[in-house]
Amino acid sequence: MKGIILAILAGILFACYQFAVKLSASHIQELFGAVILQGVAVLVGILLFMVVRDSETAIVYTKEGMRFAIIAGIFVSLAEIAVFYTFSQAISPSVGITLIVGVNILVGLGLDYFWFKSDLSGYQLTGILLILIGVILISWKKQ
Questions:
Q1: Residue-wise over 26-42: b if at least 16 C-beta within 10 A, else e?
Q2: Residue 48 has pLDDT above 50, yes or no
Q3: Cα four-point dihedral sign 6, 9, 14, 20
Q4: What is the pLDDT of residues 111-125, one digit of tens each?
Q5: Label partner for 70 (CA 20 to 30 A): which of 46, 61, 99, 137?
Q6: Pick from 138, 142, 140: which is nearest to 98 by CA?
Q7: Which residues, 6 or more positions from 96, have their beta carbon under 8 angstroms from its beta carbon?
Q8: What are the domain boundaries of the chain?
Q9: What tens digit of pLDDT does each residue of 58-110 get?
Q10: What pTM, to 2 d.p., does this model score?
Q11: Are 104 and 18 in contact (CB under 8 A)?
């Protein structure tokens, strides 16, 4: 249950992050905005790391863990830049966030299926189809 609550919190924070990027994207050069965002993220991360370190929690890592954390950092940096460029265009948050999150879900499920060889039930496949239909409907433009 704790994992589900944390996932919901992450989803809420991610949506708020995207909305804040939309608010700032028309007022700042996209790459500079991404640099500011990433700089703040580093400061927050260091602060939280110092709190955890001071609480005598063991810091555990492996070379593989470090490698994948670096790869994740590269992807999140590129995603943040892409989000700034996306929202500097005339795209509403309801469409932009839906497309980003919808594609995120579909790619995440695909990676889970092919990388971890996870089974997908009929319910999950139906959910994927509904997500895909929802993304198409929300981003469909009236002509």
A1: eebebeebbbebeeeee
A2: yes
A3: negative
A4: 988 999 888 889 988
A5: 99
A6: 138
A7: 18, 22, 83, 86, 87
A8: 1-90, 91-143
A9: 778 999 999 999 999 999 999 999 999 999 998 888 888 888 888 888 888 88
A10: 0.80
A11: no
pLDDT at 143: 41
Q: Which two tokens stand for residue 58?
A: 């063991």
Report the C-alpha gap between 96 and 86 in whole angstroms. Answer: 7
For residue 75, give both structure tokens: 């992807």
User: Do 80 and 38 contact (CB within 8 A), yes or no?
Assistant: yes
Look at the chain and count its residues: 143
Q: Which 3-state string (H, E, C) describes the chain?
A: CHHHHHHHHHHHHHHHHHHHHHHHHCCCCHHHHHHHHHHHHHHHHHHHHHHHHHCCCCCCCCHHHHHHHHHHHHHHHHHHHHHHHHHCCCCCHHHHHHHHHHHHHHHHHHHHHHHCCCCCCHHHHHHHHHHHHHHHHHHCCCC
Do 80 and 22 form a contact (C-beta atoms < 8 A)?
no
Per the structure block, which two tokens stand in for 45?
């991360």
pLDDT at 134: 85
